[in-house]
Structure formats: C-alpha cells, structure tokens
Amino acid sequence: MDGLFQRRIAAGAYMSQGELVELLGVPIQPLRDALRVLEVEGLVKIHPRAGIEFIKADMDLIRSTYQFRMIIECEAVHRYAERTSIEEIEVLLADHHEFIEEMEGNGFDPLPRLHELEHRLHGGLIGSLANPLIESTTKRLQNYTSLILMDRRETTPLINRTLKEHVKILEACRDRNVELATSEMLAHLNSAMHRAMGL
Fold first, then answer.
1. Residue 52: beta bridge partners?
2. For a FRET experiment, which of 8, 19, 132, 170 has its CA 20 to 30 Å from that of 31?
C-alpha cells in the first residue's frame, strides 16, 4: 500500500513478485502475505503466472465507493446530530471557520490541515455509530478514496468548497436538525463523487 500511495507503483500496473521484491526491498514470503491481504481488500488482483495487477480508479470504483459511503455516513450523521455534544461540534465548526479565513491569506500548504479536519469530521461520524464492523469497512473505503484522489490536484477553490460543505453539515448537527444534516451529508458526498469524476 505504501508503494502504491507513494507512487513507487503505478495504479493499474502489472508486476511480477520478483519485481516487487526488488522494488520494495522485502522478502518473498512477507510480500506474498501482504499481497493476499491486499487482494482481499480489493487493491490488487493476482493473476496466476501472469503477475499482480494493481487496481486503478475508474468510474465504476468511484461510483461504488461513494455510494457505499453515502449509505454509511448518512446513517452516521443522523446519530452524530442526535448525540454528539454541542460543545464538541462547536469546536470543530470553529476550526473550520478559522481554516477558511487562513485559506484567504494563502502562503501555506493547506493539505495537511484539510486532511486533519476531514479525519475529525468523517472519523467522528463513524465513531458515533460505535460499530466495529462499520469501522473496519470504513478503513477499506478510506483506501479506495485515497486511491481515487491520488491524481486529483487540490486547488484553493476546491478546498474552500469542501470546507464550506463541512460547515453546513456541522451547523445542522449543532442545531440538532437531523433531516438537514443528512441532506447536507448526501449533497457533500455527491459533490465529492462528481469532483472525483472530473465533472
């Protein structure tokens, strides 16, 4: 996974086990164990005597990933809006507003801060369900989402749009407006899917 996400292995590449041993500097048995795990995760396809195929994000994968996220996260935002403390929501909301203001000043790399806020929001939503099966499934979806977004360039307008979508979700949660929170989450994930598709 590190080789894939660090771009040492190209998405969509076919490679032999020998090539991977040389590229990654790992012994054959741990490599085989890792490949079996990645095959279960859906990140590689092992073709006997033909090599290992690393998946590349296509329209079907994008659509499937975001559709699955919509099912899980719309339920999660319902629970989050009902049960998370107003104080916790207000802190996350304030951090979003502060970051939006900082973005207008520019002069810094916004991606680490964006990823932190995304993790806090989406991770908090999933955590509110307190369901270990959903948590493990979400980790797999996060890998797909990372693969999908690998080649997307995050511009300031796109980051601002994402942050403002988060703010709408959080404001609805703060107001205990479950229907609006669910609607805003659905709109956010639909927008994210369309951005990933280049639409």
1. 15, 46
2. 132
Considering the domain architecture, whether residues 169 and 185 belong to the same structural domain is answered as yes
Q: Give the CATH number for residue 19.
A: 1.10.10.10
Q: Can you give the pTM of this predicted structure? A: 0.84
Residues 75 and 43 both lie in one domain = no
Same domain, 135 and 191: yes
| CATH code, domain carrying 162 | 1.20.120.530
- Bridge-based pairing state of the strands 14-15 and 51-54: antiparallel
Q: Which domain holds residue 135?
A: 59-196
What phi, psi does 152 have (nearest 5°)?
A: -90, 130
Whether 79 and 72 have beta carbons less than 8 Å apart is answered as: no
Rounded to whole angstroms, the Cα distance separating 144 from 138 reads: 10
Q: Which of 106-110, 153-157, 158-162 holds the top average pLDDT?
A: 158-162
pLDDT of the residue at 10? 83
Q: For position 175, what pLDDT does the model report?
A: 97
Unique residue bearing structure tokens 């369901």:
131
Average pLDDT over the chain, rounded to an integer: 90
Interaxial angle between packed helices 59-83 and 132-149, expressed in degrees from 0 to 180 and rounded to the nearest 10: 130
